[in-house]
Amino acid sequence: MSHSVRTFYRSRLEGLIPVLAILAALVLAAPVLGQNPSNDGRFAMTPAVRTALGLETAVVDAASQSDGLHLTGRLIMAPDVMVHVLAPARMTLRESLVLTGQVVDTDVVLQRYYSPELIALQAEVEILREEVEHLRERADRAALLLDAGLATREEVHELRLQARATAGRRDAMLARFQGFSIQARAAQVEVRAPQPGQVISAITEPGMAVEEGDPLLSIAFAPVLRIRLDVPEAMAMRLESGDAVRVPGAAGSGEIIAIGAELSPDSHLVPVFASAPDTLSDRRPGGLIDVTLLPTDAGSAIIVPARALVRIGGAEVVFVDAGDEIILVPVDIVSRTRDQALIEPDELRPGQSVVVSGTAALKNIVEGG
């Protein structure tokens, strides 16, 4: 027999090995696959069938005794360390001199805008300033005339009220210009950094128009991060402000500081905000992060691996490994994440083993497949 022929038959035989393995597993599992579980959801399980089906188990634990609920959150910048610069009027970006992530000092020019409206507002401020001075001079003259009996107290009081009201309007307009340098001839407006920090976001595309009140840029003056988690409502009801939050691999811990009062309209989940451990201060906002929640109000709930949950007949069940038999146990899920589920301890107790691998075959047995 030539070498090429031997190679051909060897490759065909190697391709049959997985098929033969599957057939062997079916033969070993035939006593179980041919029977349905008893009325109480139990059926026998021999070691040979267990091996053939590839069953693997995990021990469940009480939520209060476990290492916590594992979730994935997102890092955000703490709102109390952010400064937001808003447009005082309608403007159009001429040029941006800053990039997101850049560290800036106070009073550094960050952007230049074109805004005839802001120039007009500045002119109005100058008019109000002159009007305030004029009203104050009239009030002072009226006070002198009052001493001579040529004016009344009401006239003096009225002029002083007008001066204060006009000064209030002027100061309100000036507050809108804080952090802006205005060059009237070119209708150019410069945006300056209100304090030192890192630019978190900024408009950078020349020609982009903004309306009054639109955000121009945001600066963080301290590297303080928060963690946002979106959790099911049932889980949120078991969380409290102050519950510990840990990040695997990071020293220290944070805690829950706020629990959303309403569901997010998009995800129908509850936003939960937590402080991040100080050791994460060098991480960038927007990144995903794995966290562990340690709820103090876990009660008697039990944490089960998500892989153990199987949906049969519209209900969630787990397969409990009792040694020589497998028991189908319906469960009442409180909340569920990608990796875990928090369930009520109706028929499941801490310390029991549940099947996490081979559940598809067990489901076929239950459904008579």
Low-confidence stretches: 18-23, 25-30
Query: Beta-strand level of the residues, as a percent range?
Result: 25-35%
By DSSP (H or I, 4+ residues per run), the number of helices equals 6
Q: Which shape, going by the Cα principal axes? A: elongated
- What is the structural class? alpha+beta
Task: Give average pLDDT, whole number.
Answer: 79
Instruction: Report the oligomer.
Output: single chain
Distance between the termini: 46 Å
Count the beta strands: 25
Provide the gyration radius in Å: 36 Å
Biggest β-sheet description: 6 strands, antiparallel
Helix percent reads: 25-40%
Write structural notes for this entry.
The protein is α+β, with helices and mostly antiparallel strands and 369 residues long. It contains six helices and 25 strands. It has helices at residues 3-33, 47-53, 116-147, 153-176, 233-236, 359-366; strands at residues 42-44, 56-59, 61-62, 69-77, 82-86, 91-96, 103-104, 109-114, 180-183, 188-192, 197-202, 209-210, 215-220, 225-231, 244-246, 254-259, 270-275, 288-294, 302-305, 310-312, 315-321, 325-330, 333-336, 340-343, 353-357. The strands form five sheets. Strands 1, 2, 20, 21, 22 and 25 form a six-stranded antiparallel β-sheet that branches. Strands 4-14-17-16-15-18 form a six-stranded antiparallel beta barrel. Strands 9-10-8-6-12 form a five-stranded antiparallel β-sheet, covered by helices on one side. It is elongated and about 115 Å long. Mean pLDDT is 79; it is low at 18-23 and 25-30.
